[in-house]
Amino acid sequence: MLFSSPLLKEKALARGKSIYPKVTVFSEILPLASKNRVQAGQKPRAASSSCTQELQALFGCLKKWEFDDVPCAKQHTLYMDCVHKGAEEAAAYREAARKGTLGETGAGGKQSMTSAQFNKIQKLFPQPDLGQQPYRQMKRLPTQDYADDTFHRKHWQGKRS
């Protein structure tokens, strides 16, 4: 039976480990600001099925009938209907994207902007004092001292002067 926590024993403290959790402190090196554009994770596409079930049914029928397509006419028409429906949905999606009425429905049924729409708005209202792209991430600001090792580059290997 233990009357005290094993963490508080002398052995635990002698190992040099702290019994308190590690605390991470955020230090702002550069001012927090967004860029003038965002990158899309994926190319936006219409949310359509890929007709894999219909294609599997068609191939199963063709294998069953030793690739004779006459008995598999029903599965073939179902597959082609699915392909044409997907093409119509993709055309409607491209038209909505061209008009700019396209958005992504998020949680709660609210509609959000696509990355292309956000980039278009950011071109109209750019962030001030960002300079030209590509932006210098490790650039000393006027409020920072020359002597400060702001970006922790003091011990980097480089050209000896």
TrEMBL record:
GO molecular function: RNA binding
Composition-biased stretches (Basic residues): 152-161
Keywords tagged on the record: Disulfide bond
Keyword Acetylation appears in the UniProt entry: no
Entry GO terms, CC: mitochondrial ribosome; nucleoplasm
Stretches the record annotates as Disordered: 94-113, 126-161
Residue stretches spanning the membrane: none
Residue intervals of the CHCH domain: 51-85
GO biological process: mitochondrial translation
UniProt name for this protein: CHCH domain-containing protein
